[in-house]
Amino acid sequence: MAEELASIIALCYAPTPQKTTPQNAVEATAAVSLRAKAAVPQHSLAYDVASPVDAQLWQKLPTKIKGRPADLALRFAHVRMSVVRRCADRAVLELRQGDSRVRVVSLGAGLDGECLRLATKFEWVDCVELDLEAVAAQKRELVSHAVLSVDDDLAKLEELLGDTGPTLILAEVSLCYASPEAARRARRWAASLKRACYLELTPTSNADSRFGLALQSGFGTLLRCAPRDADDLATTLRSSGFAHSSILDLDAARRRLGVLQTGADEAALTLALRRYVMVVASADASLARGIMQRPEVVVRKMEAADSTHAKDAYIAAMGCDGAIRKHAKKQCVVLDTLPAFVATLNASIVGAVALDDQGEVRCLGVVPSLRRLGAASQLMMSIEAAAFRRGFEACTLRVPPSQQAAVALYAKRGYSTREDPRPTGAYPTIYLEKDLSVEATLVATPLIAQDASKPKVLLEKDEARFALPDSLFPTMGLVVSINGERFVCRRDPDPPSMPTLSQGTRVSLDIKWGAAPAWAWPRRVRSYAPVAGSVLTCDNGHSTVDGPCACNAECCLS
């Protein structure tokens, strides 16, 4: 709302004379906020939260604010939108249980399109917006084209705000304008819901800095309920009834969530961001502490319904060059026919990769805003596993020489340059190849209790199997080392009452492919070698050297 203007004031580094606040000042800040959000280039936003909704709403406003917002205001709006929206996406996904619907209640929604974005992205989300009568009347005209109905009165408000299921409450720079009593009632209502997550972004009124003085000078009469600092807000949340909360200033939140976009005015932006705090509060500790964590990218097999979004992500990954994007648009049609994987963040597809019939990796791309989070490595790991399962001796790929970061990633994963058997045409590329026929020594030791909890390797039902002699499998589990990396192997389905194997038997272990680098388990194990000096421990405190635990496998596998 008013924070974009406050960001501009931060450049003055001095208080300004107090001005008379017009009666419609709060309503006016809604248009100012929407103007800054609408002017943020969509390609600069984090890909998973980008939406044309704000610009579309701005175009429908009958009265426009002349000029373009200052660069600092645009960068502030970029961070604000990315942080709030990424937290909101993660919150609704965490709140949902089974096939239940999730309600989003926006307190002081203003004129922006966050609720419309959420309702468009998640078909199981219902949104309720609350604001001043003047703002609501203006918003009703803007969104009437996108909703089935608009309430003309508040007759059903009690029903809409009842404890009807999982609820996300958004208060994005809104309660700071309310009276202390009104803000207290809103937070107590949010805390009273059984399964809810409360997200609030608010400026602080701490006047210990020049920015704080400028903020108070420019908006002191408006910001009636802005907390002094993060500690003051934490106390307020506890008194409102929230059992758990996480509070970070907006600069720390953007770094935690990977929302980074450097610029020439970084110092001024950081100063402005640190005057705002982001709050996640809930009765559920996992919600309160887990929303503002490092983004978790998940890779899965591509489905038919993913085709359009996967193509869009691949094209976005190619950057802003028109010629390259045009070429990428032609190339990505293979995603409709080839086996492929997609990388997702908060249900948004942010990367893709495919494998053709010759073992060549095709259409590998991750959107710029989600790079350096391991998405590309996970995609490569999945596609190499698929190539190994299909019997390919090697994986190949082509990459433009200008993509130095991609070339470095491939080199780290074992790819080396080869002579390209085909002419490159108008787009020169580097031809890379990786040998998948791993030859390694299998080193095995009995299962160690603390290793059994590692989730990265599970030996369950799949097609990759190899045999181990009984001498290397003295208990129901063992630790295997391939190329220096250790993995836990379990024997299944023998019960704990049969902890050892009969003499002369050979055990088949099933490897689950999803665990990296499961595909690299050699087809032909050249040798077996037990590791000397292995110390075995268990929950009962037993410790032995070069032998099974004193209480056998039952303690290790319980």
Briefly, what is this?
Keywords: Methyltransferase, S-adenosyl-L-methionine, Transferase. By secondary structure, the chain is of the alpha+beta class.
* Low-confidence sequence ranges: 1-24, 148-154, 438-479, 481-485, 490-540, 542-558
* Beta-strand residue fraction: 15-25%
Fraction of residues in helix: 25-40%
Number of helices: 18
SS-derived structural category: alpha+beta
- CATH class category name of the largest domain: Alpha Beta
In CATH, the architecture of the largest domain is 3-Layer(aba) Sandwich
Q: CATH superfamily name of the largest domain?
A: Vaccinia Virus protein VP39
EC number: 2.1.1.233
Catalytic activity: [phosphatase 2A protein]-C-terminal L-leucine + S-adenosyl-L-methionine = [phosphatase 2A protein]-C-terminal L-leucine methyl ester + S-adenosyl-L-homocysteine
Protein name: [phosphatase 2A protein]-leucine-carboxy methyltransferase
Enzyme class: transferase
Question: In words, what does this structure look like?
Answer:
The protein has 3 domains: 3-290, Rossmann fold (3-Layer(aba) Sandwich), CATH 3.40.50.150; 298-435, 3-Layer(aba) Sandwich (Aminopeptidase), CATH 3.40.630; 442-557, no CATH class. The protein is built from 18 helices and 21 strands. It has helices spanning 3-9, 25-39, 53-60, 71-95, 114-121, 133-143, 157-160, 180-192, 210-219, 230-240, 250-256, 266-273, 285-290, 307-317, 322-331, 375-389, 404-412, 553-557, and strands at 102-107, 125-130, 167-172, 196-203, 244-249, 276-282, 298-301, 340-345, 348-355, 361-366, 394-399, 416-417, 430-435, 442-446, 464-469, 477-482, 485-490, 506-511, 528-530, 535-537, 543-545. The strands form 6 sheets. A 6-stranded mixed β-sheet has the order 2-1-3-4-6-5, sandwiched between helices. It is elongated, with a radius of gyration of 28 Å. The model is unreliable at 1-24, 148-154, 438-479, 481-485, 490-540 and 542-558 (pLDDT under 50).
